[in-house]
Automatic annotation (TrEMBL), chain A:
Domain BSD: 226-284
UniProt-recorded name of the protein: BSD domain-containing protein
Species annotation: Mycena alexandri
Coiled coil: none
Family classification: Belongs to the TFB1 family.
Keyword field: Nucleus, Repeat, Transcription, Transcription regulation
Highest taxon of the lineage: Eukaryota
Keyword Transcription regulation set for record: yes
SMART domains: BSD
TrEMBL record, chain B:
SUPFAM superfamilies, sorted: P-loop containing nucleoside triphosphate hydrolases (SSF52540)
UniProt-listed Enzyme Commission number(s): 5.6.2.3
Subcellular location: Nucleus
One GO CC term on file: nucleotide-excision repair factor 3 complex
Protein name: DNA 5'-3' helicase
UniProt keyword annotations, A-Z: 4Fe-4S, ATP-binding, DNA damage, DNA repair, DNA-binding, Helicase, Hydrolase, Iron, Iron-sulfur, Isomerase, Metal-binding, Nucleotide-binding, Nucleus, Transcription, Transcription regulation
GO molecular function, one term: 4 iron, 4 sulfur cluster binding
Protein's UniProt keywords contain Iron: yes
InterPro entries assigned to the protein according to its UniProt record, in alphabetical order: ATP-dep_Helicase_C, DinG/Rad3-like, DNA/RNA_helicase_DEAH_CS, HBB, Helic_SF1/SF2_ATP-bd_DinG/Rad3, Helicase-like_DEXD_c2, P-loop_NTPase, RAD3-like_helicase_DEAD
Family: Belongs to the helicase family. RAD3/XPD subfamily.
Length: 602, 787
């Protein structure tokens, strides 16, 4: 169990309660209730306290990624002393967190979320808590904290996540899927028929995918920076943001250079940009083919024109790149494979005739490469050629021509297997004997005899009229019936309908849990510790308990029908599939747990 | 996987085989047995190369004659891929071989690839040169026979190439251990062992079982004479990716002359003259020797000659004259004067300011009237120049490139009458005012260059993913194939979705037709296709345009319309540029972006650099968009001449040829998205002209069979709906088992063979009843004959 470092009476959001600092968390509980605020040590980012002598003795904790944080007011008579104690303890924690954060920021590739790693060292603390752990919940460091009343809230589904994140993830999933949310409310929050862990079992993938998508680092936006003037009240304006300036410097190192050399010594910041947008430099850099036409209008600028570069519109790029690419994409090698022969290409097929487009095209390629490098890092020249050496056949391999690796599959467990196969053999044997002596000649003879005189028979054929009529009438009836149903589909009052839906979804959830505990566990479950057979059996029994009640629930609904002006039979019909499914599960369970006949396995 | 076709055991380096591959191999074997030529069209991405190599290597290893394989491909990436494919195949064969002896036999199987000095040079100085021509020239200076002799006699007097020297010390025939060497492998081996990769390959060529190089090394007489002369006649020749073979043929016999070239040639002639005068005073015996040789008509030939031959005759082997050089150009100074006169004449011709088109005969007549230059000495021009350069022991031959070109031109123009045309274009475009004259000597008949290949080699295989309509090639190249086959693609589920978009969402018809292509509505609709697809397609999208000119103008227009800004939001953009190396780097980054999941769009040109030889399989190309029909530029005078010739000589109508040519290029672009049957991709044809039945009929059968009636006339929004539906379906795990239908196990192959045998038996019975018997050889007879 976690050891408490210090406790004090404190109010939070004007509710009286107890603030406690233990060796992993800072938590606050309303009097007589479980902790409602829990902050892991590593989430504490900053500490604020009210001035000495203020009316209230307050302590505010700011969290990582949440500056509002929590604010506590100490209420006991010796509030000051208590607060100082908390402050002293928390200051140590805060400084430790800051050091860790800096180290993380300095780390070269902070790609993998470091959370699981940090959590690991705390693990040895848990053994004391494990025996009390409910089944199916994995050992996580956070479980070490008080298990008793807070259990429902502090369950983590995904190991390695701290509970706060886990709760947040679950909340997001429930919010984004209203149906699931309703189910959760019904089963877990209101009735408590399922525990939080049980509810999420089998739905871990929802959390995992959400976590994965949240952890994905977003790259830079692909758009090129292209400040375009807007005309407001007859005045042409270009609005610059710091981000834009940064992007421009990134895109055009020349401007960064010009900026460095001239601001603030010769020009002020705004002067620089005004001049820039009027200069040839800007028009040369504009990602537009029309800029060439504008150039004649633009005035000379003694400062910025120095930075003008030659326009990169030659057939060969201005910036020659000598790195050799791997042979599979090396177009230059083909070009040099043999001496040039033949007539020159016709004018439409000569690349680079549209001079104005070339700088633009080059800029696209460079911009894309820059974006790629910002996300992946540059490719070192030495590594370039070896990109594919580890599996050089990868590029020529046709993967579906390989023998597929067979999966283990699920072994079919069958009652009375032996008897089944024996039975099959015994029935098949006479069958085979029966089929063997088929004499094709006699068959043909028979067919021929049967066909004899078909013409006369055919003329005598009379289709009885009533049969046709009957078919038509039945079809008409069918259509009418369906139309009828369609026209009064939604006449069940909302309240009842909602109840029915709840009943149905709840039963479905129980069924899901039930069958999940009956099936052999999936091999790839990586989330929750695999439950023991005993636990699974216990769970199945529990679910069965709920399922047996389905009949009562449906009966209640049927009974309530007339009060809402709905025929009971309709409700019965509507709920029948659910009931059937539940009964099926009950029956299955009965046969499975029933004493087994000798020699077979259930 | 091991099975046998007739009596030939075939080893196929996979556990499964596509039915197409099996059929392909059967037909290939039939061709080889019959010692004839064939045209085979096999769907892109169904493992054509591996089937081809697998069968031919099996064939080579099984029959004692061990016919050599000459495998030609278009581009260096394709050559490298074929080599890698071969390497894996042989490794698999070694694994499969049962006895140690058989294993050894497989291990000694040898395959090499050849490319230029520029691509294979490891000399630290020479390799740095940017131009292939310069590398060639500098390499020759360091490695030619004369220099070597001098350098060896007196070390240090002449700079030599150490890597080449090291090679000389080794035993010919074992310069490199047996096995399969890709280009990268050979380079690495050269670096590790200090030997020259280029000459290793060149000198090992007589000893290898498989040689892989580009079309030009067999079709271009200038190269072929040096490289491929000694190939034995029973070699199997394969032209893979042969859909453009007619263009390669034409190119290898065509020459352009420009004014700068003539100026440079004139300078070279002056230099030659100076050199001749100089050598006359210092070492006149050399010139006398040469003269004597020329009188006797001696061809200077030695083993080394073929290697450092810098420029050989541009003529096809049959057209070469085996007689002594005419008297009036035997003397060096006479020849120099002769060249001077010829170049002067050409310069005068270039002053004309109107377009001239004439036959070689009328050109020669005019030449004779003005300058008294006869036809016969002109024919020897190239040969005579070669001899002179050798006698004078010139170095840095790249400086004489223009002169060599003029000499080749002289030889060609005086040798060929039919199938060639001279066109003088004084202006680049119709509305240009500054003259930039170009003298085109253009070959119109692709069959000329390939004829020697068909005559010399018994089996020539022409194959590609897209050579529909099949009968076009035998017609254009003038040969009779024994087998001519196209294979449909068997699929259990449609792995690709061809769509024809004929109009934008606003119902404006889209087309790259010249009159409307720059219409803002069309440009916008093309743009919105790209934007919408960049939103819904994962990873890579490749877009092809009909020409560089159009791509460059449309990229600029899209940028100004803000269309590309929409694309930037979803994907990165890469564009093909005029520079090959720059484009390669862009391509590599494109692939990185696709691998990374960022996704990218590659804008490129049909029949451009990227469209040939680069694959966009799997995530590298989930959609290909063909903007417009890639017609050739019909205003081109060369094209017009060629069309006229095709019509007169082979009765191929102009429109038929243009349509065929456009569709084969479109199919080629679009076909690059697939490799294997689990791969998938969208193929979008965006032009209303694709909807016409006569256009679609020219697409390969394997693509055409999957264009549904509904998908052949769509607007952008409809196409998007279909695409989304397709992607949703295709991303599911394939439920049905492909095995047995589009994927065969060994059992399926055996079953098919059983069935075939039964059919053959039936056919035979039927034939026996036919008392007239058609008198052809049966396959069996030919097989027996071959052994």
């Amino acid at each position: 169990m976690p050891t408490s470092v210090c406790t004090a009476k404190a109010s939070y959001k004007k509710l009286a309660g107890v603030l406690e600092l233990n060796d992993t968390h800072l938590q606050w509980a309303q009097e007589g209730k479980g902790p409602s605020v829990r902050v892991a040590h590593k989430d504490v980012q900053a500490l604020f306290s009210s001035k000495e002598g203020a009316a209230q003795v307050r302590l505010k904790v700011a969290l990582v990624g949440d500056d509002t944080g929590h604010s506590f007011a100490f209420t006991s008579p010796k509030a000051h002393i208590e607060r100082e104690k908390f402050k002293a303890e928390l200051t140590v924690i805060v400084s430790r967190n800051r050091a860790a954060a800096e180290a993380q920021a300095r780390a070269p590739v902070p790609q993998a979320p470091p959370k699981p790693l940090q959590a690991l060292p705390v693990k040895p603390l848990t053994p004391a808590a494990t025996p009390q752990r409910p089944p199916l919940v994995s050992a996580t460091p956070s479980r070490a904290v008080s298990v008793s009343s807070a259990e429902q809230r502090n369950v983590t589904i995904i190991p390695g996540n701290d509970p706060a994140t886990d709760v947040r993830l679950r909340k997001t999933v429930l919010m984004s899927d209203p149906d699931l949310g309703a189910l959760h409310r019904e089963l877990v929050a209101h009735t408590g028929q399922l525990s939080e862990a049980e509810f999420w079992e089998g739905r871990e993938h929802l959390l995992l995918s959400l976590a994965a998508s949240e952890n994905q680092r977003k790259g830079k936006s692909g758009q090129m920076v292209d400040p375009r003037p807007e005309t407001v009240d007859g005045e042409t304006k270009i609005v610059m943001t710091p981000q834009m300036i940064h992007d421009i410097f990134d895109e055009y190192p020349v401007i960064a250079k010009a900026h460095r050399e001239n601001v603030p010594s010769k020009l002020s910041e705004s002067e620089f940009w005004t001049r820039y947008f009027k200069s040839k430099l800007y028009h040369a850099h504009r990602a537009s083919i029309r800029s060439t036409a504008v150039q004649h209008v633009v005035q000379d600028d003694p400062i910025l024109d120095k930075y003008l570069e030659k326009i990169d519109d030659e057939l060969e790029p201005r910036r020659q790149r000598n790195e050799r690419v791997e042979l599979f994409v090396d177009l230059g090698a083909t070009f040099e494979d043999h001496g040039e022969t033949g007539n020159e290409k016709d004018i439409t097929m000569i690349a680079g005739r549209q001079r104005g487009a070339l700088p633009l095209i080059r800029k696209f390629n460079e911009h894309s490469e820059r974006l790629l490098n910002s996300a992946l890092g540059e490719v070192p020249a030495a590594k370039r050629q070896k990109l594919n050496t580890d599996n050089s056949y990868g590029q020529i391999d046709i993967d579906d021509l390989h023998q597929p690796e067979s999966s283990a599959g699920i072994v079919l467990e069958m009652q009375d297997r032996q008897r089944y196969f024996e039975g099959g053999i015994s029935t098949a044997a006479p069958d085979a004997a029966l089929h063997k002596p088929v004499d094709i000649k006699t068959l043909i003879m028979h067919a021929k005899v049967n066909m004899e005189g078909w013409q006369t028979k055919f003329t005598q054929l009379k289709v009885e009229r009533p049969a046709g009529d009957e078919a038509l009438i039945s079809m008409t009836k069918n259509v009418a019936a369906r139309l009828d149903v369609k026209s009064r589909k939604n006449d069940i009052p909302d309240a009842l309908f909602r109840q029915m839906t709840i009943c149905q979804t709840a039963t479905n959830e129980f069924l899901r849990q039930f069958w999940a505990s009956m099936y052999p566990p999936a091999a790839e479950v990586q989330v929750v510790a695999v439950a023991t057979p005993a636990q699974r059996a216990a769970k199945a029994a529990k679910m069965l308990g709920y399922l047996t009640k389905t009949q009562e629930k449906v009966d209640a609904l049927v009974y309530a029908g007339p009060q809402h002006g709905v025929e009971p039979t309709r409700i019965e019909i509507a709920m029948k599939p659910v009931l059937d499914a539940a009964n099926r599960a009950i029956a299955f369970h009965r046969t499975k747990t029933a004493p087994k006949p000798a020699g077979t396995r259930g | 996987m091991k099975f046998s076709i007739d009596d030939l055991p075939v080893i196929f380096p996979y556990d499964r085989i596509y039915p197409e591959q099996y059929a392909y191999m059967c037909d290939l074997k039939r061709t080889l047995d019959a010692a004839g030529h064939c045209v085979l069209e096999m769907p892109s991405g169904t493992g054509k190369t591996v089937s081809l190599l697998s069968l031919i290597v099996s064939y080579q290893q099984f029959y004692p004659t061990r016919r050599k394989l000459i495998y030609c491909s278009r581009t260096v990436p394709e050559i490298e891929k074929a080599l890698a494919e071969l390497k894996r195949l042989v490794a698999y064969r070694v694994e499969c071989a049962e006895t140690e002896e058989a294993k050894e036999k497989e291990r000694t199987f040898m395959g090499l690839g050849l490319t230029s000095r520029k691509n294979l040079c490891i000399h630290p100085e020479v390799a740095k040169e940017k131009k292939g021509k310069v590398v060639d020239a500098r390499c020759r200076d360091l490695t030619n026979a004369v220099a070597c002799e001098k350098g060896r006699a007196d070390p240090g007097s002449v700079p030599l190439c150490d890597w080449h020297e090291n090679l000389g010390k080794m035993e010919p025939g074992s310069l490199i251990p047996p096995g399969i060497w890709t280009l990268a492998d050979v380079l690495q081996y050269g670096r590790d062992n200090g030997v020259c990769p280029y000459f290793t390959v060149r000198r090992m060529m007589p000893f290898v079982d498989v040689i892989i190089y580009s079309f030009h090394y067999l079709l271009d007489p200038k190269v072929a004479e040096q490289v491929s002369k000694e190939m034995s006649k029973d070699a199997i020749v394969v032209f893979d990716e042969a859909h453009n073979i007619d263009n390669v043929c034409i190119e290898s016999l065509s020459i352009d002359l420009t004014r700068p070239m003539l100026d440079s040639a004139a300078r070279s002639i002056n230099k030659l003259g100076d050199k001749v005068d100089e050598i006359k005073t210092t070492n006149s015996s050399k010139l006398l020797d040469e003269y004597a040789k020329l009188v006797n008509g001696l061809q200077e030939e030695s083993a080394d000659d073929a290697e450092d031959g810098f420029m050989s005759n541009p003529l096809l082997p049959n057209d070469m004259l085996n007689e002594a050089v005419p008297g009036n150009i035997r003397k060096a100074e006479h020849f120099v004067a002769f060249l001077k006169r010829f170049v002067e004449y050409l310069k005068t011709r270039m002053r004309v300011l109107h377009v001239v088109a004439e036959t070689p005969l009328s050109f020669l007549q005019h030449l004779k009237d003005i300058t008294y230059i006869e036809r016969r000495p002109l024919r020897f021009c190239a040969e005579r120049l070669q001899s002179l350069i050798r006698t004078l022991e010139l170095d840095r031959l790249d400086e004489y490139a223009a002169l060599q070109k003029v000499a080749s031109f002289a030889t060609l123009v005086s040798t060929y009458e039919k199938g060639f045309l001279l066109i003088l274009e004084p202006f680049e475009t119709d509305n240009a005012s500054v003259p930039n004259p170009v003298f085109h000597f253009t070959c119109l008949d692709p069959s000329l260059a390939i004829q020697p290949v068909f005559e010399r080699f018994s089996s020539v295989v022409i194959t590609s993913g897209t050579i529909s309509p099949l009968d076009m090639y035998p017609k254009m190249l003038q040969f009779t194939p024994v087998v001519q086959e196209t294979y449909p693609m068997t699929l259990t589920r449609n792995a690709f979705l061809p769509l024809v978009i004929t109009r934008g969402s606003d119902q404006v018809a889209i087309s790259s037709r010249f009159e409307v292509r720059n219409d803002p509505a069309v440009v916008r609709n093309f743009g919105s296709i790209l934007v919408e697809y960049s939103k819904i397609v994962p990873d890579g999208i490749v877009a092809f345009f009909p020409s560089y000119l159009y791509m460059e103008s449309i990229v600029a227009a899209w940028n100004d319309m803000g269309i590309l800004n929409e694309v930037w939001k979803n994907k990165l953009i890469f564009v093909e540029t005029p520079d090959a190396n720059e484009t390669s780097i862009a391509l590599e980054n494109y692939r990185r972006a696709c691998d990374n999941g960022r996704g990218a769009v590659l804008l490129s040109v049909a029949r451009g650099k990227v469209s040939e030889g680069i694959d966009f399989d799997h995530n590298y190309g989930r959609a290909v968009i063909m903007f417009g029909v890639p017609y050739q530029y019909t205003e081109s005078r060369i094209l017009k001449a060629r069309l006229e010739y095709l019509r007169d000589a082979y009765r191929i109508r102009e429109s038929e040829f243009l349509g065929f040519d456009a569709m084969r290029n479109a199919a080629q672009c679009v076909g690059r998205v697939l490799r294997g049957k689990t791969d998938w991709g969208l193929m979008v044809f965006a032009d209303k002209r694709f909807a016409r039945a006569d256009k679609r009929a020219k697409l390969p059968r394997w693509i055409n069979q999957y264009i549904t009636e509904t998908a052949s006339n769509l607007s952008t929004d409809m196409a998007l709906t279909l695409s989304k539906l397709f992607m949703r379906g295709i991303s599911q795990n394939p439920e049905e088992n492909q095995t047995g239908i589009s994927l065969w196990t060994l059992d399926d192959v055996l079953k098919a063979q059983e069935k075939q045998r039964a059919l053959a038996l039936e056919a035979k019975e039927a034939e026996d009843e036919d008392e007239f018997g058609n008198g052809e050889f049966t396959d069996q007879m030919l097989i027996d004959l071959d052994i």
